[in-house]
C-alpha cells in the first residue's frame, strides 16, 4: 500500500474510490473495502481510500472534549495496509476544507484530483459542507459527473447494525469480546513506555507503563484485561491494568500498566502495542499489599486460561 497526501496524489490508472473517516475500520468498513478491491480487480483498476485527518469533529468542534476515537492515524494506516488497499490518500481536514460544498467536493477532489471511475460508499455516507451530499445526490448526478456510484448496505451482526459508536460503548462497558467482534480485529492501545512507581516490580510483577499521547484515543473501562503485546516483531502474553491503583493511595491519576509474561528486557522509551483480548474484572481496593499480590497471581492464572484456550 502506498500512502499519499491529497495535494500530491497522482494516479494514472483506473481509480476505484471510497471515502470516509473510517474510525476503527470495523467490519462494516471492511465490507466496503472488500467490495472496493473486488471492483478494482474486475475492472483492472486500483483501490483508493480517501480519508480525512484530523477527524472532522476535532476541527469543527474543538471545544468539545468528549469525542474519543478508536484509531489514531498510525493505527488507521496499519489497518488499511492489513486489508490490502492499493492507495491511501490522506486529506488534511481544516476549517477551509469543511467549507467545500458537496458539488465542489465531488468536482475538485473526487473527479479532478482522484480521477474517479467508480465511487463506492457506505449506506449512511455524507459529504460536503454541513454533510449535505448523499448517495441519492450522487446517483442523480452520476452521468454528468462521469463516474459510477455504488452504495453498500449496513453490515449487521446478529441483527445489530455495526457502528463506531456501538463499539465505543462496548469498550466503555468492558465488553471487549463484543467490541472485537464488531471491529473484526482486536482493539489496540499503542504508546511509549515511561517510568512509573515500580510497585509492580516490588510485588514480583513488573509492569510497563504506557503513555498514550493522543488525547482523543478511547481508553476502555478501568479494570484488568487479558492481552497480547506486540514489541519489535514479537508477540507476548500479558495482563493489563487500567485504573488509579486504589490500594496504593486515594485519587491517584489513571495509568495504563501491562505485565508481560516471560519478558525481562528494559524497554523505557520504546513503543508497544497492546491487543485487548478479554476483560477479567474491575479494579479493586485491597486491605494490604499481600492481598493485592495474591489477586495478581489469580489474575495471571485467569489470563493464561483465556489466552491459551
From TrEMBL:
**Which keywords are on file for this protein?**
ATP-binding, FAD, Flavoprotein, FMN, Kinase, Multifunctional enzyme, Nucleotide-binding, Nucleotidyltransferase, Transferase
Q: According to the UniProt entry, where is the signal peptide?
A: none
Broad EC category: transferase
Domain of life per record = Bacteria
- Could you tell me which InterPro entries the record lists for this protein? FAD_synthase, Riboflavin_kinase, Riboflavin_kinase_bac, Riboflavin_kinase_bac/euk, Riboflavin_kinase_dom_sf, Rossmann-like_a/b/a_fold
Q: Which GO terms describe its biological process?
A: FAD biosynthetic process; FMN biosynthetic process; riboflavin biosynthetic process
Pathway(s) served: Cofactor biosynthesis; FAD biosynthesis; FAD from FMN: step 1/1; Cofactor biosynthesis; FMN biosynthesis; FMN from riboflavin (ATP route): step 1/1
Family according to the record: Belongs to the ribF family.
What is the protein's given name?
Riboflavin biosynthesis protein
Native source species: Rapidithrix thailandica
